[in-house]
Amino acid sequence: MQVNIVGVSGSPRKGATQYCVQEALRSASEILGISTHFIDLRGNKINHCIHCNRCLHEKLDICPVFEDDMSGYYDYILKADGIVLGSPVYHMSPSSLMQAFLNRLRPLGRYIGSGGWAVKVGGAIAVGGMRNGGQETTLECLNNFFFCSGMVVVSGGIFAYNGGSIWSNDKKEIGAKEDTIGMDTVRVIGRRTAIIAKLLKLGLTQAAGIEPSVLAGLSGPSELEQKLDKFRHR
């Protein structure tokens, strides 16, 4: 069974974040049966979501409004069993590039209620130029995306509570490498994302008869439809 882990670097420049996400994927690939794919948002044109909801109304898996670099990423995210998000810290939050990327995943939102994201696994990485430079709050934002999508969120256990946390000392990749403790948290996140994704995928093959909507935390299809109806008329 092949398990797909996708890593996304949300930094607009080549440096620590890119290196950290790639290192997390390298650790993930050490798990038997894991394949990885790296998405580097650097240099990409990704427009902000205008919340028109055309993608949802027309049941499209891509954004029908903008013809930009985002269109090439939907299929990777849709087919991913695990997702590792890495962002530099910008004012104690993820970069605008990462935020735009996450907001533009709205076309895939219609799969959330039907349980399509309930067995996806998410792990987060934050890279700060200062030792205490907003890594925790940035990880919280990235993890909140996973929560909102109904995903299973992993941490690094007792060694990386919220996710991978790096102090680059504003020296890009060199600084990340020098933070040996931080890089350990990155590798933990990569491995745990892969392992939990593999366990969930294997378990799902043995869990016959479970309605997709139940995976999303609902009692069944009728409750899903009721909640969607309320959502549409808010």
List the main descriptive attributes of the protein structure presented here.
6 strands; 234 residues; six-stranded parallel beta sheet; 15% strand; single chain
Task: Walk me through the topology.
Layout: E1 3-9, H1 16-29, E2 34-40, H2 54-57, H3 74-79, E3 82-88, H4 96-103, E4 121-128, H5 135-148, E5 152-153, E6 164-167, H6 172-178, H7 180-206, H8 212-215, H9 221-232
Describe the protein:
The radius of gyration is 18 Å and the shape is globular. It has 234 residues and is an alpha/beta fold. The longest helix has 27 residues, at 180-206. The protein contains 9 helices and 6 strands, in the order E-H-E-H-H-E-H-E-H-E-E-H-H-H-H. Helix 1 packs across helix 6 and helix 1 (16-29) packs across helix 7 (180-206). The termini are far apart. The mean pLDDT is 91. Strands 1, 2, 3, 4, 5 and 6 form a 6-stranded parallel beta sheet that branches. Strand 3 (82-88), helix 4 and strand 4 form a beta-alpha-beta unit.
> N-to-C terminal Cα separation, in Å?
42 Å
Overall geometry: globular
Query: Major sheet, described briefly?
Result: 6 strands, parallel
Tally of contiguous helical segments: 9
Q: H/E order of the elements?
A: EHEHHEHEHEEHHHH
Helix content: 40-55%
Number of strands: 6
Estimate the strand proportion: 5-15%
Uncertain runs are none
Task: Return the average pLDDT rounded to an integer.
Answer: 91
Global Rg: 18 Å
By helix and strand content, what is the structural category?
Answer: alpha/beta
